Amino acid sequence: MKKFYILFFIILFISCKKEIKLPRSFKNILILGNSITIHVPDASIGWYGNWGMAATSKDKDYVHVLEKLTRASIQPVNISGWENSPLTFDLSILDKHLLNNPDLVLIRLGENIRDPKNLYPSLEALLNKIKTSSPASKIMITGTFWLNTHVTAILEDFANQNGLMFVPLSHLARNENISFIGDLIKGEDGLIHSVTNQEVADHPGDAGMQKIAEAIALKIEELNLKSF
């Protein structure tokens, strides 16, 4: 019965979100992500934004869309280095971000993991760091956007084993949700740049960013309802 009411209010939120404002406990959200979350300008790959690659403008990336959907203040942090070297990554880098005691920490990682053999213990270390530095924070975790069945399975199992809300995303990785060579992006410099690098083009475009934000917002709303 409890699950029925939670589902009812979530559906009501999605269908009538302009008319209804449910109570929200998450005002400050920290997102630990990779280039899909935020990437500084890098002319060597033809990227001139300072937001989620490859949204066509700052307000189109999933972080800023999510801010609008949740009415929360969101801090995006790129820790893609953790994906490349999870066992040796210096987690003290997170201290300055966790000092603010975010209401919610979203672990939005996984796309750059090539060898998942050390993923589970690395996730445990990351989770312990968050819990130790910001014990009041709720924690959520997503799957990968790019299809990676093995990594996503580990991420989902880890979430389940630790009682964390899990957000699947791989079903969104369809052509209409991905950028492309020739897409036009307004850079930090105010100029319009064409996507010329396949590395950039493989990232979610505006449609993909919108759907990522909506998928996360839905789970945030579900977690929020459980807290009342």
UniProtKB/TrEMBL annotation:
Gene Ontology MF annotations: hydrolase activity
SUPFAM superfamilies: SGNH hydrolase
UniProt keyword list: Hydrolase
Protein name as it appears in the record: SGNH/GDSL hydrolase family protein
Taxon lineage: Bacteria, Pseudomonadati, Bacteroidota, Sphingobacteriia, Sphingobacteriales
